[in-house]
Amino acid sequence: xxxxxxGRQTAAAVxxxxxRTQPGVAAGGIAQASAVRLPSTLRVGLSRGVVELKQFFRxxxxxxxxxxxxxxxxxxxxxxxxxxxxxxxxxxxxxVFVAGMIAYGIVSTAFISMGVGIAVDREDGTLKRLRxxxxxxxxxxxxxxxxxxxxxxxxxxxxxxxxxxxxxxxLPTDPARWLTLGWLLALSVVSCTLLGIAASALARSAxxxxxxLNLPAIALQFVxxxxxxxxxxxxxxxxxxxxxxxxxxxxGFRSVFLPDSMMxxxxxxxWEPGRxxxxxxxxxxxxxxxxxxxxxWVERDSR
Length: 303
Hints:
Blueprint: H1 2-15, H2 23-35, H3 41-58, H4 60-80, E1 84-85, E2 88-92, H5 93-123, H6 126-131, H7 137-167, H8 175-199, H9 209-223, H10 235-241, H11 245-257, H12 273-294
Antiparallel strand pairs: 1-2
């Protein structure tokens, strides 16, 4: 009898559902849990962008260098070469430098600053810690893009202010030119940002990153007609520059802020907007591929 009673008790315990819970409470708990969702990658990325901006603006020297350096170079070159373009009396060389210098401002902000910033985050462990959190990797890059976008727009505004006030640069009145400026900015920022992310892998440390990234950036400014007028460039340099985005960026921005009479000063005698868009778009794709192949979350010695 004892064995039977124990067997019945065991079977009853297995079959019994245990203490009953109130159906309304259980259903409400499930509904509440399902209603709570994690913030989207875009929302987290924008929040991180605010953090990036705060950190950036606290570094006064970096702010001054990033915003003022392209305008300072345009000012120096404009004061030295403030004379009419040969054969075109209504355009001065200073205006040509200011229009083309927008390309260098984007390279400085999107390529150099992006690459250096990622190298610093990699060395101090920010990227390594990020991988151990629920924050998606895309949010980190969105935050960097927010920083690049704000810095680029601010730098361009300062540069154009120098051109308008000191060198009588005329802002375009044709809406089509402002539309051209829009897609030029988008393609230029995207391509340079992606290339900056990929190039950050070349730097072995945060200390060496500025030197590693500045060398190709400065070299391309000379051969692409940004720091030197096109008339002074050998044909070989122009050919080499045609394979890189900086030449097309400078040519595109000149097409926005200079009259069409300046087309004859370009290598092809034309603004070539279609080819400019094609080359910059190709570099956006190439930059994305390079990012996927070369980007590292940790330092080489930490693998």
